[in-house]
């Protein structure tokens, strides 16, 4: 079962169309997977670059915050107080250098809850303010129960969100870094919300570029598939032409001896398997040497070609005509008994005897053939046995005066 499946697949891949389509599909799939992997890898790389930048910014902001002063701001909880203005001033300076930042802020954690403290959003000294709503002093931030960032900050590490967040104001990437008071205790942590609209825009452009590359690659794959199809189709056509040439007589267009032997052996094996009888005949031109002597080889060639045309016109598609050599031809009458084959051969002989052939000189010439017929029999070891009997029948036809058909069976000869 498996070997049959493998053979069927092998036969399919020998078809130029199947091969070309398979290669096109494989290349397009490979292209799609490769481009998709490359696109994701590129976007992940750029995202990681963004995350590293936000990580650095969050650390810079944390470094700029005075932990002791921050504790005083929290204690007073006054947005207009001098300590708040003093604490937020360095953050405003950083924000002014980074217009692509949405928010710079600080937060604290009390009893497991998170609150905003410093916020540069609406500071009067901000050079490029965004149309954003500032947070209130000690405004609570509602985080999810599974957010891991507080544990990361409590451990003293910077936390950057794994992906982008989007709200009413835009899409951003957040980073947070802890800062400490002079006694080494955690005073709070910085927060930076970095605008990633440029990345989103770039991502869309990249996606369109990859789509264009994919379409271009798909078209190229189809073109290459067509070229491969054309190449192998040409190779197959040449191979088929060479095969036909190797099995065809170049002068008459009939099959040659090699082709006849292959067909005779095939029919004989079928006879052995299923007892379906086929018959063979040998056709020989009478006194062909006189034609060559009187009209030259060109005249002889015309007679041979006319003979093949006449015989082919009276055979079935399942029958098989071949040039055996010189002026001798062989016929396989498929699925035909010896007597029926002999009758058909005699009709062929009679028609040929009435067929004038115009010589190169313009003179019409009549010619005749002698035919010997036999059939496959159970005692035969191979197809050659039937052919040998047909040859004996042909010899008898020649001896009896030519221009006649003789049938030889295993039991004797029937005229």
In words, what does this structure look like?
- There is one protein chain.
- With 415 residues, the protein is an alpha+beta fold.
- The protein folds into 2 domains: 1-243, Beta-Lactamase (2-Layer Sandwich); 257-414, Reverse transcriptase/Diguanylate cyclase domain (Alpha-Beta Plaits).
- Helix content is 53%, strand content 20%.
- The strands form 3 sheets. Strands 1, 2, 3, 4, 5, 6 and 7 form a 7-stranded antiparallel beta sheet that branches. Strands 9-10-8-13-14-15 form a 6-stranded mixed beta sheet, with helices on both faces. A two-stranded antiparallel sheet has the order 11-12.
- Helix 2 runs antiparallel to helix 6, helix 3 (67-76) crosses helix 4 and helix 8 (288-314) packs across helix 9.
- The protein is rod-shaped, with a radius of gyration of 48 Å.
- The model is unreliable at 1-12 (pLDDT under 50).
What's the SSE blueprint?
Blueprint: H1 2-13, H2 16-64, H3 67-76, H4 82-97, E1 101-110, E2 113-119, E3 140-141, H5 149-154, E4 159-160, E5 165-167, E6 170-180, E7 186-195, H6 197-246, H7 257-274, E8 279-285, H8 288-314, E9 320-325, E10 328-333, H9 338-353, E11 356-358, E12 364-366, E13 369-375, H10 383-399, E14 405-409, E15 412-414
Parallel strand pairs: 13-14
Antiparallel strand pairs: 1-2, 1-7, 2-3, 4-6, 5-6, 6-7, 8-10, 8-13, 9-10, 11-12, 14-15
């Amino acid at each position: 079962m498996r070997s049959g499946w493998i053979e069927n697949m092998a036969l399919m891949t020998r078809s130029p169309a199947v091969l070309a389509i398979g290669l096109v599909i494989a290349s397009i799939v490979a292209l799609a997977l490769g481009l998709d992997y490359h696109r994701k890898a590129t976007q992940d790389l750029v995202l990681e670059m963004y995350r590293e930048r936000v990580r650095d910014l969050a650390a810079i902001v944390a470094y700029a915050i005075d932990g002791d002063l921050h504790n005083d701001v929290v204690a007073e909880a006054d947005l207009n107080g001098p300590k708040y203005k003093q604490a937020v001033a360095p953050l405003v300076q950083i924000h002014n250098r980074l217009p692509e930042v949405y928010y710079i802020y600080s937060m604290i954690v009390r009893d497991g809850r998170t609150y905003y403290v410093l916020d540069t959003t609406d500071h009067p000294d901000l050079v490029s303010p965004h149309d954003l709503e500032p947070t209130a002093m000690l405004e609570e931030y509602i985080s999810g129960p599974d957010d891991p960032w507080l544990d990361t900050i409590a451990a003293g590490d910077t936390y950057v969100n794994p992906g982008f967040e989007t709200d009413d104001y835009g899409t951003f990437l957040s980073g947070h870094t802890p800062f400490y008071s002079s006694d080494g205790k955690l005073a709070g942590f910085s927060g930076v919300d970095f605008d990633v609209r440029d990345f989103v825009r770039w991502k869309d452009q990249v996606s369109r570029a990859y789509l264009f590359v994919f379409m271009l690659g798909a078209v190229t794959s189809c073109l290459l598939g067509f070229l491969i199809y054309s190449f192998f189709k040409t190779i197959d056509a040449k191979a088929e032409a060479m095969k036909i040439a190797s099995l065809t007589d170049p002068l008459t267009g009939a099959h040659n001896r090699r082709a006849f032997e292959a067909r005779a052996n095939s029919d004989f094996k079928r006879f052995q398997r299923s007892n379906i009888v086929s018959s063979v005949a040998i056709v020989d031109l009478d006194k062909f040497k006189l034609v060559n002597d009187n009209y030259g080889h060109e005249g002889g060639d015309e007679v041979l070609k006319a003979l093949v045309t006449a015989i082919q016109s009276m055979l079935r598609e399942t029958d098989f005509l071949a040039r055996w050599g010189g002026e001798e031809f062989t016929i396989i009458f498929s699925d035909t008994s010896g007597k029926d084959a002999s009758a058909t051969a005699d009709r062929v002989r009679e028609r040929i005897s009435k067929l004038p052939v115009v010589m190169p000189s313009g003179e019409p010439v009549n010619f005749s053939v002698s035919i010997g017929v036999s059939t496959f029999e159970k005692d035969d070891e191979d197809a050659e046995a039937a052919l040998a009997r047909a040859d004996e029948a042909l010899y008898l036809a020649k001896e009896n005066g030519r221009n006649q058909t003789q049938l030889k069976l295993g039991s004797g000869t029937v005229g």
